[in-house]
Design a protein that fits this description.
Layout (H helix, E strand, L loop, with lengths): L2 E5 L6 H12 L2 E4 H9 L3 H8 L1 H17 L4 E4 L10 H4 L5 E7 L2 H9 L6 H4 L6 H16 L4 E4 L5 H13 L1
Parallel strand pairs: 1-3, 1-4, 2-3, 4-5
Bound molecules: shikimate-3-phosphate (S3P).
């Protein structure tokens, strides 16, 4: 059954948009980070701190596979790095998967992440660059994977309602 995947950099609004979209379309909604936390009985930041990123990426891949194998039609929001590791981008090219890249500018991401960088393990390891430079470099590395999404939706200066409307219009066409 069809899976609608919402992907993009940290702070792009993946969980918020996916949640509203699920409400609008009356579909089940899964947040990959949340599913990982449930299965591991640990917060993402604690997994990074105690077991490291390589372990996290392995579990992230497994949980994504499990969610994609479920029978129901559902909306899944990924973590910012999900499409960029363990060949997950190939899993997203399977038949029955509709993927949306929520594309936010470096400025939008910097503004949003400035307020919450303490909660993001990957932003805490960055000591040399300013947040904006770090995001610019990181986004450059990841864009190759993000652009493999079936649909690209620019999020800057748009409301949640506008974005949900935009995505719904693509899905019904
Ligand atoms: C990550 C993003 C996080 C979470 C983990 C790693 C990343 O998810 O999966 O901290 O590599 O960009 P959000 O994008 O939901 O913050």
């Amino acid at each position: 059954m069809e899976k609608i995947i919402i992907l993009g950099y940290m702070g792009a609004g993946k969980s918020t948009i996916a949640q509203h979209l699920a409400q609008e379309l009356q579909l089940s909604y899964y947040d990959l980070d949340h599913e990982i936390e449930k299965q591991q009985q640990q917060k993402i930041a604690a997994i990074f701190a105690t077991k490291g990123e390589v372990y996290f990426r392995k579990i992230e891949h497994q949980v994504l596979q499990q969610l994609l194998q479920q029978k129901e039609r559902a909306i899944i929001s990924l973590g910012g790095g999900t499409p960029c590791y363990a060949n997950n981008h190939l899993l997203l090219q399977q038949e029955g998967v509709q993927s949306f890249y929520l594309k936010a500018s470096i400025q939008t991401l910097t503004q949003r992440l400035e307020k919450e960088k303490e909660h993001r393990p990957l932003l805490q390891t960055n000591t040399e660059d300013t947040l904006e430079t770090f995001i610019a470099k990181h986004l450059f590395d990841r864009s190759y994977f993000y652009y493999q999404a079936k649909h690209i939706v620019v999020v800057d200066d748009k409301s949640v309602a506008q974005l949900v409307h935009e995505i719904t219009a693509i899905l019904v066409n």
